[in-house]
Every structure is written in structure tokens, then in C-alpha cells.
Specification:
The complex is a heterodimer.
Chain A lengths: L3 E12 L2 E12 L3 E6 L5 H9 L4 E8 L2 E2 L5 H6 L2 E4 L11 H6 L11 H7 L1 H5 L10 H10 L8 E5 L7 H16 L3 E5 L3 H7 L2 E6 L2 E7 L7 H8 L2
Parallel strand pairs in A: 3-8, 3-9, 6-7, 7-8
Antiparallel strand pairs in A: 1-2, 1-4, 4-5, 9-10
Chain B lengths: L11 H32 L6 H19 L3 H22 L9 H23 L13 E3 L4 E3 H23 L1 H11 L1 H6 L4 H23 L11 H14 L4 H21 L7 H12 L10
Classes of the chains: A alpha/beta, B mainly alpha.
Chain lengths: 234, 296
């Protein structure tokens, strides 16, 4: 594995009284594309949110590029080069497409330019004056991904980017994710759709009841099909 | 003229002077409801201290003039800064602790603060009020009516202030942060924007706007501890009619209702104090989100 970019140890987190994560541990090297698999309610989304610092309370250790972030607010964590794309996409209805695109501030040098992003998502350029929430589901997903590519963040946390999208759009998102990996982005991807995840990832972490219970390298996926079925209940 | 007449048998002189009065009242409704709408959008707090902060703006200008000999034009800038900083202090020390609670708590806290502030001013300076000399004396005879220069200036200044605020929120980068953070503060913060600081700044600006309106009001009204008390009630009605959170809505509704009130003074003087509340009740029945509001 290349230089470790993100290291999570014994990560615990809470929503109000409910204890959601019970000691998550994972490690991701620079340039890797890793997925987080698991059934509904296993704590995948909460893991992404806890890494980003947007849960009410968290404990344990999350180091990014060697820096401990557990006590930091999310705006400081973002400035280290982490970017988060939420499951609900979070497109702002009071902003048009281009304003949505330009909203996240630059945190580092070396982000993609607006032109490069529009090249990746030509639809968005055509509709750049439209209200953000007037886009189709697939276009909103592309906007949600596109707007965090400009910022110079090294690592993207993507929460179920294919959810609820037509197969042809899922395929398109897959191509985009591969392109991003080839451009050097480190990606932690939460997916329900294992078939999709298997085509893009280097490794898979499997979560159950707020913990990481297994790690499967892409090369071993074929040999682990039965085990995966057990984990995911598919 | 104590009764209502539907036939229009009024002099143009009366009609236009009431229209001007309506425009001036509308100018204050617009400036104040604008600040309330911005604050509510960002802080989720119904800022009942707004009337007291408007009064503080007028008082600051009056104190600057009488104690420090600072003329109106400097006070118009300085007083909103001073009162805005006071607002920032209030936000940092108190308001920020109640954002996660129900609106009711914000309302009670800011209402209590308004009572305390107004009580202190009343205790120190009494409630009779002090005059503030008009910085632009004189006026123009337009033939159909007499236009006092300062009142004309107030209408224009209020328009400029309102449109500048609208532009800053709807057309600039900072405004885009503000609009986005109003919708989803958590996500905006996760992009690397210091949302708590943005919230503090917004409150400071909203309070500053109220104070600026107060300075503009000083030469028209008496500067007194309770000058904001009644006004703020009408302004809340304006905000309800326009719809919470719409900037242009606040501006249009503010001026519009001022004019409606002015015309009511001509057609039916006894109703002029209640007409805005009647409109509010009607709007609530027909379009509960307000004329320009969006239902979420």
C-alpha cells in the first residue's frame, strides 16, 4: 500500500443518546479507491460523516495526512483536503447550477478547473443557469460530485452516488469515478450496489453493527462470493 | 375627518402628503423587516430585540451629536457599526446557545433582552424623547404638495440600503454562502466554511441595518427609549405578510404596506392603525407562507 492518507482507529460516534459506531478501524493509502459495504444500518453513512466531523459526538482517532482531526470542526477538516458528497446530494435550491458548483471554497492548489469539470459533465454546462434542484436525479448527483472536484481536496468521501439512478447513469458515474481515480484522487465510497462497487474498487471494507468486520481485496472478490452474500444478505 | 368615506373627495394635497408619509413608513418597514428576514433565515431566531436595536441606533446618533459633536452623516455610518458590534456580542454570549432549541426560546430571549434594553434607556434618559435636528432642512414646493427635503432623502436612502442588501445576498459570493447556509448549514460547513462565524456576521449586519434605520428615523421622530416598541409589532406583521426568508419580498411588502397604510389614512382614518393587521390575517388565511414565502 502507498503512503497512508487516512487512518481511522477505534472510531465511536453518537446521535443524541444512540451509540452508532462502536470502534471503526480502517486505513486508506493515497490514490486508493476503497468501498465501505454492509447492510442498511450497519453504520456506513455514519462512518463517512464521522470522518468529516459532522456528527454530534465522536471519539477515537481519525488522522488525515498525519494530522489528528478528532477534536476539529468540519470546516477545519475540510481545509486539510477532505471533501464529502452526501447521500441526499445536498444541492441548494436557492442557488443555480453554477453557483452550486462554485460554492465550496478552494482549500488547496491543484483542483480541477471549472472547464475540466464541465468536460466531465457536459449536461451541467448546458444547464448552468438552472435552479440547482430543477436538475434530474442523475444530474444532481453529477453536480454534487462535480462541485467538490474544484476545491483541491485529495480525498473524496462519496455516499451512495448510484442510489436511485437508471442503469445507464450508474454506468456513467462508474466511468467518472474511474477517471477521478486515474487523476490521483483517493476515494472512500459507500455502496449498497456491490456489483457496481466490485467494478471500481481496489479493496472493500465490510461493516456490521457499527464495526468493520472484514476486508477483501479486489483480487479475492471472486473467491469470496459466498462470504459476501452472507455479509450483505443479497 | 373621523369617518370613512368611499367616495374620493379628498384634495390631491392631502392624498400626496399621506402617500409620502406612507412611503416613509414603508421605508422603515422595509429596512427593518429585511434585517429580521435575514436573521431568521440564518439563525432561526425571531429577533424581537430588533425594535430596541433600532432605538439604540437613534440614541447612538443622538449621543454622538450631543456629547461628541459628531454630525449626522458620520453617525449614519458609525452608529450602525457600534450597535452592530453590540449585536455580535449578544450573539456570541447568548443567542448561540439556543440555536438547537425551539423558536419559542429565541423569541423569549430576544423579547426579554428588548425589555431590559428599553428599560435601561428609559431609566437613564426618561421616556419623553429628545429632538434631533434635521440635517437637511427646508424642502420643495412641488405644486401639488410640499416635500420636506429630509423626508425625500430618507425614502431614497432606504431604497439604496434595501437594494444594496438584496444585491449582496442574491448576487455575491458571500451572499451565496449565506443562502446555502440558510438551507443546509452542516453541509456548507463541511465544505470548509466557518458557518458559526458567518452566523455571527449575519446577526451583526441585521442589527446594523436596524440601527441605520434608527439613525434615519432620529430627525423625523423623537429619539426615545420606546420608539421601537410599536414599530416592531407592525414590522413583524410585514414579515408575516411578505413571507419569512424572502429578501425582495420584505422590501416590496414593506414599501407596499406603508403605502396601503397611507391611503387608508385618507379613505378611512380610524382603520389606518389596524389595516396592516387585517391584511396579515387575510394573507395567513389564504397563503400561510406569505406573499413571497416558499413552503418547505
Amino acid at each position: 500500500m502507498a503512503e497512508t492518507l487516512l487512518k481511522v482507529q477505534d472510531l465511536q460516534s453518537w446521535y443524541g443518546e444512540s451509540h452508532i459506531l462502536h470502534g471503526v478501524g480502517l486505513e486508506i493509502g493515497r490514490g486508493e479507491l476503497v468501498t465501505l459495504l454492509g447492510r442498511n444500518g450497519a453504520g456506513k453513512t455514519t462512518t463517512l460523516k464521522s470522518i468529516m466531523g459532522i456528527v454530534e459526538k465522536r471519539a477515537g482517532s481519525v488522522t488525515f495526512a498525519g494530522q489528528e482531526t478528532i477534536g476539529q470542526p468540519s470546516n477545519v477538516i475540510a481545509r486539510l483536503g477532505l471533501a464529502y458528497c452526501p447521500e441526499e446530494r445536498g444541492i441548494f435550491s436557492s442557488l443555480n447550477v453554477e453557483e452550486n458548483m462554485l460554492l465550496p471554497p478552494q482549500v488547496k492548489q491543484g483542483g480541477m478547473t471549472l472547464d475540466e469539470i464541465y468536460q466531465l459533465f457536459p449536461n451541467l454546462k448546458e444547464r448552468r443557469r438552472s435552479q440547482g434542484t430543477k436538475l434530474s436525479g442523475g444530474e444532481q448527483q453529477m453536480l454534487a460530485i462535480g462541485r467538490i472536484l474544484r476545491t483541491g481536496a485529495d480525498m473524496l468521501l462519496l455516499d451512495e452516488p448510484t442510489e436511485g439512478l437508471a442503469p445507464v447513469i450508474v454506468q456513467r458515474i462508474g466511468e467518472v469515478i474511474r477517471t477521478l481515480k486515474s487523476r490521483g484522487f483517493t476515494i472512500l465510497l459507500v455502496e449498497q450496489n456491490f456489483r457496481f462497487a466490485a467494478t471500481v474498487a481496489d479493496r472493500h471494507y465490510v461493516m456490521e453493527d457499527g464495526r468493520v468486520v472484514d476486508m477483501i481485496a479486489a483480487a479475492d472478490v471472486a473467491a469470496s462470493v459466498d462470504k459476501m452474500h452472507d455479509y450483505l444478505g443479497v | 375627518m373621523g369617518t370613512c368615506s368611499l367616495s374620493i373627495e379628498v384634495s390631491t394635497q392631502l392624498l400626496f402628503s399621506q402617500l409620502l408619509l406612507g412611503l416613509i413608513n414603508g421605508a422603515f418597514y422595509a429596512m427593518l423587516s429585511l434585517g429580521l428576514a435575514v436573521i431568521f433565515g440564518m439563525l432561526n431566531v425571531i429577533n424581537f430585540t430588533h425594535g430596541a436595536q433600532y432605538m439604540m441606533g437613534a440614541f447612538a446618533a443622538w449621543l454622538m451629536l450631543t456629547e461628541l459633536n459628531i454630525p449626522f452623516w458620520f453617525a449614519l455610518i458609525l452608529s450602525p457599526i457600534v450597535v452592530g458590534l453590540f449585536g455580535i456580542l449578544l450573539e456570541r454570549l447568548m443567542l448561540k446557545r439556543i440555536y438547537h432549541l425551539d423558536h419559542l426560546y429565541g423569541f423569549l430571549l430576544t423579547f426579554g433582552l428588548a425589555l431590559i434594553i428599553e428599560g435601561l434607556f428609559q431609566w437613564k434618559w426618561g421616556s419623553s424623547g429628545a429632538p434631533y435636528q434635521s440635517p437637511i432642512p427646508g424642502g420643495y414646493n412641488l405644486g401639488f404638495m410640499f416635500l420636506p427635503s429630509y423626508r425625500g432623502f430618507v425614502v431614497v436612502a432606504a431604497l439604496v440600503i434595501c437594494l444594496t442588501t438584496w444585491y449582496a445576498i442574491e448576487r455575491t459570493k458571500l451572499g451565496a454562502y449565506l443562502r446555502a447556509a440558510t438551507e443546509n448549514p452542516t453541509l456548507v460547513q463541511s465544505f470548509g466554511i466557518n458557518v458559526p462565524r458567518l452566523i455571527t456576521l449575519t446577526y451583526g449586519l441585521g442589527v446594523g441595518l436596524a440601527a441605520m434605520a434608527g439613525v434615519l428615523a432620529a430627525p423625523i421622530q423623537q429619539v426615545s427609549a420606546l420608539m421601537g416598541t410599536n414599530l416592531v409589532l407592525v414590522v413583524f406583521a410585514v414579515v408575516v405578510i411578505g413571507g419569512m426568508g424572502s429578501i425582495m419580498g420584505s422590501i416590496v411588502t414593506g414599501f407596499g404596506l406603508g403605502i396601503v397604510e397611507g391611503f387608508t389614512k385618507v379613505a378611512c382614518p380610524p382603520a389606518s392603525n389596524t389595516v396592516i393587521f387585517v391584511v396579515m390575517a387575510l394573507v395567513l388565511l389564504i397563503k400561510p407562507a406569505g406573499l413571497f414565502g416558499q413552503t418547505k
